[in-house]
Amino acid sequence: MSDRGSVFVEAPARLHFGVLDLRGRLGRCFGGLGAAIPSPSLLLEASPAPRVSAEGPDADRAIEFATRFLAFHQLSGGVHLVLHRTIPSHAGLGSGTQLGLAVGRALAELRGLPTETVELARATGRGKRSAIGTWTFALGGFIVEGGRRPGSEKIAPLLARFAIPLTLAVLALTAAPAQARDACFGAAARDPQCAGASASRSVSPSPAKARTLPNSPCAPVPGQQDPPVCSFGVPEANATDTVALVGDSHAGHWRAALAQVAIAKGWHGLSITHTSCPFQMAVRDLQGGRRSSCVGWKWDVFTWFAMHPEVTTVFVAGLTGGSGVVAAPGKTVFQTSMQGYLDAWSNFPDTVKRIVVIRDTPKFLHDTDTCIERAVKRRKDPGTACARPSKDALDPDPAIAAAAKMPRNRMQTVDLTRYFCSAARCFPVVGGALVLRDTTHMTGVFSASLGTFLGSAVDAAFARMNQGS
Prior knowledge:
Distance between the termini: 56 Å
CATH architecture of the largest domain: 3-Layer(aba) Sandwich
Number of helices: 16
Number of domains: 2
CATH topology of the largest domain: Rossmann fold
Structural class: alpha/beta
Radius of gyration: 23 Å
Mean pLDDT: 87
Strand order of the largest sheet: 7-8-10-9-11-12-14
């Protein structure tokens, strides 16, 4: 048994566009076309346990896949699985394969086994006919697979993979069955298509659980320490572009959303973050070694970018309000923070063609989790019962203010506040998803639910850059 803690796996839904050769007249049976779509998606948590158990939607199927995987590898012991979010069943979205592969990947991580997707498919009994689900799980994008030779047990080979515009995925989603489960989960509940949907009186994850959950999955880049870098999205060898997410923990909590955008667009994503250290040149109001660590990290990041010209797009975000920096002479803390961002961005090399600033999230009070738990017990809607006035929850964002002074053909902003707040109030629970795990940081569950909407906003930002407006 591994002594590792919980492992989280996210997986996109997939669309199957048809079979190339059903009867195998050209030497291979089946073959087909398909694509990964960023939403709906699956979020699974796995932790070591003496027996196989599961909770949440599709728990029985998850147990079946886990049992099959362990038997395939002749392993004893078990695992406890928590399905925080699932793909609707019987809706043509590949829920079975994505669940099976996600369970297999989680167990492989816990047991120190190979994580190649083809091996996961063999161990969980998936990909016996079509391999569209297998390859979309591995690579995302638009997939062409070549079918299986008669009598062969091998997974059908990948013939081609292409990135697809996120808008194509959104259009595909609107055609999904109206009764598909979780269609209005999380940020989607704030979308006009979900207007009139009944308010959720449940919360996922619970406030107590949320405090223990890590950020979204990110694979450390081997040998990279100064600064530490981890990767998400599509493997570098298959990527159409390389992007970076840079900043403090308020940049890091957007990674679950950006990972879905990266999968849809075929991007290789790199996450470079440092707690309590926004990526700006203003002096951070930290004590002793924490301050010097922050300063050193920033210069390491500049050096890293100079050595990695493959990164063409950078996403940045940081704590709002401008607090936490030492005010420069004659300037307020907010003005100092704003200038600090401008100074940092001017140090990016010319190989960084596009910079996107994501507005930070609203802030809630320390007793909000208690309010949510009380509302759930009383069967009230915790989102509205514990909402905070927008004027109090939303601080001015110095990074957004700084971006307004940058050239429009290189710098644009993204503001998804409407998915957190109405004009009057900000909601700590949206569509049954807990928004923040503390007073200022998003849960991975809610961040992931923003993937589709972040992707659309990024598309619009890129279009404005191209227009220089």
